[in-house]
Amino acid sequence: SLSAREPSLSQYGASKASAEAYVETSGMDFTIVRPPAVYGPRDIDMFELFRTAKYGVVPVPPEGHTSIIHVDDLAECLLALAPAGIASGATLEPDDGRQGGYEHGELARLIGQAMGRRVFAPHLPGAVLGLAARADKLLRRDKAKLTPDRVGYMVHPDWVARPARRVPENVWTPRLDGPAGLGATARWYEREGWL
């Protein structure tokens, strides 16, 4: 996960960075793959954005950019990397190929388009997200989806895959750009009765 780049922001990121450090000192050959936000069929995290888009509103974190990757592309990437002979110790950051990622509001609008809706995408300040996380914890306890830990991750302005860490094109290239992948995901959610 890209979260390993910023381990101080969340427990999730710290756990990923710790796992990477363990692998790096293991003495084994390894390649680290840090995917950005993964979405697609059966995903429950990004699903919340599709669900709110159905009602015309997709709240987003403060200004920032993020890369994304469809789960099918990520699976194909991992399968392509296994026999590829990438130098041991490489760290790769696959994404959908969009240079510079997506501004949060732009991503919300693309999700809206995938749902056939024009959406309002207000940027919520970190303090507001923090209050919402505490309220979610009070209401849903252990089932809270928005947690203070997740807020720390969400408000970071740069979750963009680095061009220098892209998977070599002769090994793998993504099939689904954001609009195509988000559209396919919306159709899956609708077909399966999630929306």
Descriptive account of the structure:
The radius of gyration is 17 Å and the shape is globular. The model has no long low-confidence stretch (mean pLDDT 93). The protein is built from seven helices and seven strands. With 195 residues, it is mainly alpha-helical. α4 crosses α7 and α5 (126-140) runs antiparallel to α6 (148-154). It starts with 10 loop residues before the first helix and ends with a helix. It has one domain: NAD(P)-binding Rossmann-like Domain (Rossmann fold), CATH 3.40.50.720.
How would you sum up the global shape? globular
Domain unit count: 1
Runs in which pLDDT lies below 50 for 5 or more consecutive residues are none
Structural class: mainly alpha
- How far apart, in Å, are the first and last alpha carbons? 28 Å
Percent in helix = 40-55%
Strand content: 5-15%
CATH architecture field: 3-Layer(aba) Sandwich
The CATH homologous superfamily is called: NAD(P)-binding Rossmann-like Domain
Strand order of the largest sheet: 6-3-7
Mean pLDDT: 93
What is the CATH domain class? Alpha Beta
- Determine Rg (CA atoms, Å): 17 Å
Order of helices and strands: HEEHEEHEEHHHEH
CATH topology, anyone?
Rossmann fold
Counting DSSP E segments of at least 2 residues, the number of strands comes to 7
Query: What about the largest sheet?
Result: 3 strands, mixed
